[in-house]
Amino acid sequence: MALVRDRRHLNLRLPLPEPSERRPRFPLPLPPSSVSTVNSTANTTTTTTTTTTASTTTISISELEKLKVLGHGNGGTVYEVRHKRTSAIYALKVVHGDSDPEIRRQILREISILRRTDSPYVIKCHGVVDMPGGDIGILMEYMNAGTLENLLKSQSTFSELCLAKIAKQVLGGLDYLHSHKIIHRDLKPSNLLVNREMEVKIADFGVSKIMGRTLDPCNSYVGTCAYMSPERFDPDTYGANYNGYAADIWSLGLTLMELYMGHFPFLPPGQRPDWATLMCAICFGEPPSLPENTSEKFNDFMKCCLQKESSKRWSAHQLLQHPFIQSIDLKST
To answer: Which residue ranges does the record assign to the Protein kinase domain (predicted)?
Structure first.
């Protein structure tokens, strides 16, 4: 491990947000009633995005009724909420006022990114509001089937056809983000939200970076290390011609492989990863391979994602043209 000891010091510090972003006080816009429809017979809510411009009417946190907790983590809680007047259902992500300053910086970074994105494959932000006690709330689109991580636990594995549909949507989101110089840096099953129609959207931008320049370096140690690309562990060896976006493609490849195999690809089923084991497996081992009965198209697609040399990985735009993706028509499936 002498090679590891000789590496330069790791960059463990995230940049501070701009002063104007540290304590945003934005009015919370009320989306028009045409944006959301409620299916009372199924007792579920389906959100349909339209081109209608959001109303300028503002609402307070008192107008939202908390229905249940959807999840915890990162110094905050996500609730399913209902707007009392329109009955529209949303997800409210609340970061507590006494959270670690680093967590607050991450949530402010997420707000900054969500407020400038508009893609059917990226979770929609309906508004931001300061809450009592210094808490910060983000009112977001509600996805009624949870995350791909939840689905994996309930159904064990995904078919190639289902993965092609998932990949096409995630690549659509990545292509949009990358074209706007936004890198996610934490793509994994738990950050991909899904509804009962199997529409998939990218979420959780707490560690994302907005690139100032096309070739701006982006190899700091943030995000979940299990899904980090080789060049993020070892930029000197694998980062030649690093373009700043290839790490998201590696993470997508590992995510799809995990959904297909039912366990994290670099480790045997049931084994919990630790940092040293993952670093050695990702940097010094070969990329994980799929089972023998996998189709040629899926195998080739995964090889395009999991190239250890970042410059050899296909971009999101290129992968959208891959035969594995091109054969899927989302409108008819």
So the answer is: 64-325
Q: Strand locations in 119-194, DSSP E? A: 125-130, 136-140, 182-183, 192-194
**CA gyration radius for the chain?**
20
Q: What's the CA gap between 257 and 263, in Å, rounded?
A: 8
Instruction: Report the alpha-carbon distance of residue 130 to residue 273 in Å, rounded.
Output: 37
Name the CATH superfamily, with its identifier, for domain 61-140: Phosphorylase Kinase; domain 1 (3.30.200.20)
Q: For residue 183, give the amino acid letter.
A: I
93 is in an annotated binding site: yes
Separation CA 10–CA 129 (nearest Å): 35
Spell out where 203-290 has E strands. 209-210
Rounded to two decimals, the pTM is 0.75
Cα separation, 94 vs 107, in Å, equals 9
Q: What is the C-alpha to C-alpha distance for residues 244 and 302, in angstroms, rounded to an integer?
A: 20
- Is domain 146-331 classified as CATH 3.40.50.1980? no
Task: For 198-231, give one letter per residue: b (16+ CB within 10 A) or e.
Answer: ebbbbbbbbbbbebeeeeeebbbebbbebbbbbb
Residues recognised as catalytic: 186
Residue 99 is predicted with a pLDDT of: 65
Contact criterion met (CB below 8 Å) for 279 and 266: no
The answer to whether the beta carbons of residues 172 and 202 sit under 8 Å apart is no
Smallest Cα–Cα separation from 330: which of 99, 208, 168?
A: 168
pLDDT for residue 96:
78
Tell me how far apart the alpha carbons of residues 59 and 69 are, in angstroms, rounded to a whole number: 21
Closest CA to 135 of 114, 112, 111, 104: 104
Domain ranges of the chain: 61-140, 146-331
Instruction: Give the pLDDT band of residue 146 (cuts 50, 70, 90).
Output: very high
Q: Looking at the predicted structure, is the pLDDT value of residue 74 above 70?
A: no
> Are 14 and 106 a contacting pair, CB within 8 Å?
yes
